[in-house]
Structures are given as C-alpha cells and as structure tokens.
Q: What sequence folds into this?
C-alpha cells in the first residue's frame, strides 16, 4: 500500500464520515468490529462526536473497508448516503442558499470544516459552470474512492438545495474508467467521463443565479456566521508556513507568486516574507517542498509523462525539473518511476 504524503499525514479527518462508511459496509455483511480492530479502534470510539482520525488511519480504514466488502464502487455507495444533514452546519447553510452561485461559493470557503483533504472551486464560463473537487494533498490509493464519494455527495447536496434546478450536465474524473462505470452513470444520473484532467461536474451557466425555492436568507446568514466562527477556530493555531503550504497545494495546477499569496492573506509581500523567516522557512522553500511532494505522487500514480509533470509543476524546461528532482530524491524522475514499477504490488 502506498503511504500518504508527509503533508497529508499532518491532517486529520472527522469521524462522522467513517460512521456512514461503517453503516454501508455493515449492510454488505462486513464485521465492523473486526474492520475497526485492524486500525486499533472500537465502535464506541467511532461514536464519539469529537473523534478526529489521522489521515494515515483514515486511509487504511477506507481501503480495508473496500477490501473486506469486496466492492470497488464503495466510494459511490458511501457518497449516496451523505445527504445534506450529514455535512452539519455547512450542509444546512448550503440548503438555505439563495442561488446555486451562493451555495457553491459557500462550499468553496467552508468545505475544509467537513472534508479537510479536499477543496471545492468553481469557474464560470460563457455557457457552463465547472465545479471542481481537488485534492488539497495527494491521496494516493485513496484518490478514486474519496473523489467519487465527495463529487457525488456535493452533487446531491446541490440537487437538494435547488429542487431540480441544478441539472448537472456531466461528471468528470481524472482516472481511467473503472469496471463499474455503467453503475456510476446510473448513480449520478448523468454522463460520467473518465480520464479528464479534473474531478467535479458541469452545470449550465443559465441556472447559476436563479433564485432557489428553499432559500432562507436569515437561516443562511446565521449558518454562514457559525461556519466562519468554526473556520476561524480551525485556522487560529496555524503557522504562516502551514497556511502558505495549504494554499500552494490547493492551487497545485498554477502556483501563486509571493505577491499573490500575500494578497490572499491581506498582508504585504515583505510582511509575509518576514513571518516565514521567523518560522525558519521561506516562500521559495515551501514551493520547493510542495513541488517535491506532488512530483513524487504524480510519478507513483503513473498518469502523466515526465514532461506533463514538469509543466504541471510550473517548469517551462523539463531539464530544470529533472535537475530539481535529482536534488530532492538523488535519482532522476525516470529512474524513480522505474523503481516504483519494480516494487511488488500491494495485496
């Protein structure tokens, strides 16, 4: 089994999604107590609303569940279970949004409260709106299942808030079609495309600002206020370096400059530079660290060529990427990939 990256190991996942996972695999005949025992957990611990699971443990639990249930489409079945209420105050705020644009913008800002390993973003084009679900840090073997769970759950949440206005046109995923692709199309109830460069779904731009029937401005404002309070608590103890690292990972297909990053945090570039120095690092060091993390994950995944990885990480010259990678890992990207392919497959 591929290990989660160092950046992902720093994160924790709330246990409430695992409770839904437990309910799903129990219905498939899995001994839930035995499943939890493999990660040194109990059902009593899982019922604790304050329980936070380290990412490495979450990673193992999800993969163990899929193996024990013998269901490769498990991520989709768990996603079906995650109705609006399962997303707590974020789901409540979304269901009371005035428009789909307001709902998507709320998810963009507050999804870290519920799914800290993923980020939501959207792009409005002339005729369509792309709602993207991206990895905040590389998820390794967990990528497919977690993206399926999240994309389906968010689509269903927007479906519920819009009362049929949503009309998702298509869903996309950045991996090869699984054997259960036809089942996925039935569950999503729309076209599902694989092998794309991003995960998420497409809405017609004509529906993004239509007033929603379930809108409750007062309830929305109160819920959004609580979301902001919770987000402030979540980030209060973050170091500046941790915040910069998270931003770089969220923007991994186009890294912001020092100047743009400083603007995100409402400080001057000089102030941001000084704060990072006080923490023993620099913007350049953090960018190098993130590039190294992503380069290793891309090479392990094997979806992109070395030239494509270099471009994705912002290198205009592949030779510069090769030199940087050899400095990081003491081997060339090609040798690293060959070494990974020679390793025995995980059972």
A:
């Amino acid at each position: 089994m591929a290990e989660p990256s160092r950046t992902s190991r720093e994160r924790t996942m709330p246990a409430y999604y695992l409770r839904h996972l437990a309910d799903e695999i129990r219905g498939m005949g899995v001994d839930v107590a035995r499943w939890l025992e493999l990660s040194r957990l109990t059902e009593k611990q899982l019922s604790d609303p304050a329980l936070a699971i380290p990412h490495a443990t979450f990673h193992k639990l999800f993969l163990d569940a899929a193996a024990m249930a013998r269901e490769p489409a498990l991520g989709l079945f768990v996603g079906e279970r995650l109705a609006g209420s399962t997303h707590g105050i974020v789901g409540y705020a979304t269901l009371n949004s005035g428009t789909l644009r307001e709902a998507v913008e709320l998810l963009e800002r507050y999804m870290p409260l519920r799914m800290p390993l993923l980020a939501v973003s959207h792009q409005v084009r002339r005729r369509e709106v792309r709602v993207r679900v991206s990895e905040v840090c590389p998820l390794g073997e967990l990528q497919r299942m977690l993206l399926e769970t999240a994309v389906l759950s968010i689509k269903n949440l927007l479906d519920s808030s819009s009362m049929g206005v949503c009309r998702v046109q298509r869903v996309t995923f950045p991996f090869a079609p699984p054997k259960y692709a036809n089942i996925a199309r039935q569950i999503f109830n729309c076209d599902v495309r694989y092998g794309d460069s991003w995960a998420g779904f497409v809405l017609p731009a004509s529906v993004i600002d239509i007033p929603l029937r379930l809108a409750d401005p007062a309830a929305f404002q109160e819920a959004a206020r609580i979301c902001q309070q919770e987000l402030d608590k979540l980030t209060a103890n973050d170091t500046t370096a941790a915040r910069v690292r998270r931003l770089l990972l969220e923007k991994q297909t186009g890294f912001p400059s020092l100047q743009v990053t400083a603007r995100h945090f409402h400080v001057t570039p000089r102030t941001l530079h000084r704060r990072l120095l006080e923490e023993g690092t620099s913007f350049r060091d953090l960018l190098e660290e993130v590039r190294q993390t992503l380069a290793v994950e891309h090479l392990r995944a094997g979806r992109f060529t070395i030239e494509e990885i270099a471009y994705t990480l912002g290198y205009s010259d592949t030779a510069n990427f090769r030199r940087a990678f050899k400095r990081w890992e003491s081997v060339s990207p090609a040798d690293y990939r060959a070494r990974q392919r020679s390793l025995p497959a995980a059972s």
The chain is about 55% helix and 10% strand. Confidence is low (pLDDT under 50) at residues 1-10.
